[in-house]
Amino acid sequence: MFHKIILVGNLGRDPEMRYTPNGQAVTSFPVAVNRTYNDSAGQQVKETIWIRISAWGKQAETCKQYLTKGRQVLVEGRLSPDRATGNPRTYTRPDGTTAASYEVVAETVRFLGGGPRQEGAATEPAEGQSAAPATSDEEIPF
User: Fold this and answer.
1) Rounded distance between C-alpha atoms, residue 137 and residue 61, angstroms
2) What count of Cα atoms within 13 Å lies in the side-chain half-sphere of residue 42?
3) How many Cβ atoms are within 10 Å of 59's Cβ, its own excluded?
4) How many folded domains does the chain comprise?
């Protein structure tokens, strides 16, 4: 069996790094993934999903060193379920509603853009390295 998830989004806060008892580095950071679509009434809907990312080992150290809040990243990895249920982790919000939390264990993290998103800057994912220009939906081949 095999599964892989690919996300492009922006960091919601600076990464936090810690070490396991056996000395392995692990860095965690939230990524906001945005989607815009038109509903059945023709109204534009903007949707944001927050996903927790965990990077391990040397990649964890590199993420901690170079990533900052607002930075655009591409993450390839696998979903990490709640060990007890096999589903996303669920919790109760302060207002009493139930919510789910998704976590991805990163296999690859690619740094996109030149740093935190600037006001008025392009919001579409950039291809390649930090010097690459942003692309629009019409330019993406899939």
Assistant:
1) 33
2) 0
3) 16
4) 1
Per-residue pLDDT tens over the stretch 56-97? 999 999 999 999 999 999 999 999 988 888 888 888 889 999
3-state secondary structure the chain: CCCCEEEEEEECCCCEEEECCCCCEEEEEEEEEEEEEECCCCCEEEEEEEEEEEEEHHHHHHHHHHCCCCEEEEEEEEECCCCCCCCCEEEECCCCCEEEEEEEEEEEEEEEEEEECCCCCCCCCECCCCCCCECCHHHCCC
pLDDT tens, 112-137?
Answer: 986 654 444 333 433 333 333 333 44
CATH number at residue 15: 2.40.50.140
Instruction: Give the whole-angstrom CA distance, residue 74 versus residue 87.
Output: 24
Instruction: Tell me the whole-structure pTM to 2 decimals.
Output: 0.72
Range of the domain at 131: 5-139
